[in-house]
Each structure stands twice: as structure tokens, then as C-alpha cells.
Amino acid sequence: MTTTELLNTMIDRASNDGLPDLAEILACTLNLDDAPELPLAVGQVAELLNMSSHTLRYYERIGLVTVDRTSSGHRQYDLEAIGRVLFITRLRLSGMSISDITDYIALVETGDSTVDERLALLCRHRDKIRRQLEELKFTMAVIDYKITVYGGTRSD
Fold it and tell me: What is the top-level taxon of the source organism (predicted)?
């Protein structure tokens, strides 16, 4: 799903149902048509999200994700847990540290009294991402320059 499609999905859901949960929205971006029925085992989620089972177990062990277990102890990921993993994955891809993600999740689980702290944490992270984007744009300009020096053409 493209960024535009994701944003449109979020806007549509918000106008129809109030503000939807982000984990739910992210989980809806998955193509679950070919996936087995929910809940999914850790290996199935790892395959679906193209990540390792080890990473999923690590997220659970450090308290970022909570999943139910069968009577025999096997993990069962529901849509909410899968959405949480997707959200964590996005935060990690954007460079947020495990420590900051852990702090954020702890604030979420504490409840509505922590909204201001969550907002501040996310705003700081957004500012960091904006700086990184500007640095990447400058780096791209430098690389484009060198490509043209060698006789290549810029790609826009």
C-alpha cells in the first residue's frame, strides 16, 4: 500500500468511526487474503511481515508486544498484536531506539494521562526524521553532482 493509500484509509476510517487505532490501520494494510486464519503463530507472523521469529520473540520478551498463548504455550498473534509489531517496525525503520520505543509503549499502557508525554516523544522523533531527510536530500544532490561529473545523468 502506498503512503497516499494509507493516508486515505486513515482519513476514511477517521471520518466514519472517529479516530481509529493506528495498530488496526497498519494491520489493515496487510494482504491477509493468502494468510492462514487469525490468530497466527510466531512463524506465520514472521513470514507475513518478512522478519525473523527471533525479533518477534525479542519484542515480546522486552514487553513491546503482548500475545496470547495456547494451552500448550504457542504464541497466538491477533490483529492488534500484528498491528503493534508493524508500528514498532515503522518506528525502528525511522531510527527510533528500542529504549525510546519501550518508553513510548510504557506510556501508552499507562493510559490517557500520558498523552502529553507521548506527543512530546513523537514530536522529538519527527524533528529528528526531518533533519535526516534534509541530510539525505543534500547527500543526494552531492551524488547527483558526481554522477554528472562522470558523464551520467541525474535521476529525478
Answer: Bacteria
One-letter amino acid of 80: E
Count each helix (H run) and each strand (E run) in the chain, helices first: 7, 2
pTM of the model: 0.75
pLDDT digits (tens, 9 = 90+) for 53-84: 999 999 999 999 999 998 998 889 988 888 88
Cβ burial, residue 75 (10 Å; 0-12/13-18/19+): buried
Where in 32-133 does DSSP place strands (E)?
68-69, 75-76
Query: Rounded to whole angstroms, how far apart are CA atoms 40 and 138?
Result: 43
| pLDDT beneath 50: ranges in the chain | none
Q: Which domains does the chain have, with CATH numbers?
A: 1-93 (1.10.1660.10), 101-156 (no CATH)
Tell me the three cell numbers of residue 101.
Answer: 520505543
pLDDT of residue 104: 95
Q: Are 146 and 136 in contact (CB under 8 A)?
A: no
Q: How far is CA 18 from each of CA 12, 15, 156, rounded to the nearest angstrom?
A: 10, 6, 38
Cell of 89: 517496525
**DSSP state for residue 36 in the 8-state scheme:** P
